[in-house]
Amino acid sequence: MSNLESRALIAAAIGVTVGVISVAGMFFYQQFINKQKYQAGNNSLEPVYQSLAKLQKEVEALRQQQKRKKRSTSLNRKHALGSNDSTYVSTENDLDSYSTAGTDIADDEFFDCSDAEDGTEDIESRESTSINQLGIELMKIDAQEETEERNKDTAYYKLKELIELHPHNEDVIWRFARACYNCINNFTDIEHKNKIISEGLKACERVIDVEDADLHKWYAILIGIHGEYLPLAEKIKNGTVFKNHVIIALKIRPNDPDLHHLLGRFKYELSSLSWIERKLASTFFSEPPNASYEEAIESFEQAEELATQPHLENRLFLSKAYIATNNFEKAVYFLNDICLQSIVTKGEKNIQSEARRLLETYSKDLYKNI
Asked: What contacts 138, CB < 8 A, 6 or more positions away?
């Protein structure tokens, strides 16, 4: 494992240890998993689980170190308070031992109570262990989401259980929303798909006031998917809600290529509305939402600049936007690029197939204009 990968795991570990699942830590960890996905070609999860097992040991070691530090601090405080008590004995080489002569408290009983006579540390320890376990579970789920194409509903059911235990934890909730999005691809029944989407939306709405980029990002995605099954009027209304949450997420995380892609998709779809659809939109809004293909291209190009891995879907829609503006040269360039990429998932295969179809059509138009 490289130094960069080790730092990514340590950053995640520190976030869990102090009782906070750090957004930055999880982000770096996800970047590490993404790298593993492209290098390993979506093979076995065994190396990932080995890394997680090692990480869990490191987290436990850090937690024990914190406990020892608390005990040492407690002993120093007791030493200061009882410096005039002849029953107290302290040695330079043994910070964790003292005499209880003249008391009924044995050494083991003292350490059971640690430095909090009311059991506060014991409660904190249990809470810390719970958070530690939750953090490890979430990391495992992230690893599966990034490396497995099969059994996407596994994460959905696992996160559904975790939501029962942590109904207001945004780190659990946005992952549940992501799992809902991935899970619906396993079903063809529209009613069942709607049920799963609604579950994800309701979970997000419980904490939607929290400023978390992933929460607003996946809420927006579910809003967008939900709109596909709604009448046109509601679909247009949903589009505005979708845009608002994408913008909220972008304010929190302005360098997220996926968010720029989603904003580009909103602008592209808005630009593609027919005259009748635009008239219908004007009946719901004093100023109907409006966008141009040029604005969509700007967002797609921003996503391209920020992406660290080939974003095939973004390149496909960038090509479509260029076609809509009759810029066939740039469209053909990106379509060619998509066709040359090594594909991993079924979704990427579908994107590549559509790119080949568009390339066959619009490369002819390019040659006509030369």
From this structure: 21, 26, 171, 172, 175
Tell me which residue of 34, 47, 50 sits closest to 345, measured CA to CA: 34
With b for 16 or more beta-carbon neighbours within 10 A and e for fewer, the 319-338 pattern comes to bbbbbbeebbebbbebbeeb
Cβ-contact 151, 162 below 8 angstroms: no
Nearest residue to 337 via CA among 313, 306, 361:
313
Tell me which residue of 267, 273, 261 sits closest to 309, measured CA to CA.
261
> At which residue do the structure tokens 């066959």 appear?
360
Q: What pLDDT, on a 0 to 100 scale, did the predictor assign at position 231?
A: 80
Rg (Cα) of the chain, in Å, rounded?
27
For residue range 20-39, list pLDDT tens digits in order.
Answer: 333 333 444 444 444 444 44
Our CA dihedral for 318, 321, 325, 327, rounded to 10 degrees, sits at 30
Q: pLDDT band at residue 210, thresholds of 50, 70 and 90? A: very high
Q: Is residue 114 within 8 Å of residue 71, measured between CB atoms?
A: yes
**Alpha carbon distance 222, 242 (integer Å):** 9
Higher pLDDT, 262 or 2: 262
Place of tokens 């003249």: 102
What does each C-alpha distance from 251 to 97, 105, 214 come to in angstroms? 53, 57, 12
Can you tell me the distance from the alpha carbon of 65 to that of 150, in angstroms, rounded to the nearest whole number?
40
**Bridge partners, 94 (sequence order):** 91
Round to whole Å and give the CA distance between 177 and 221.
9
Q: Would the pTM count as exceeding 0.90?
A: no
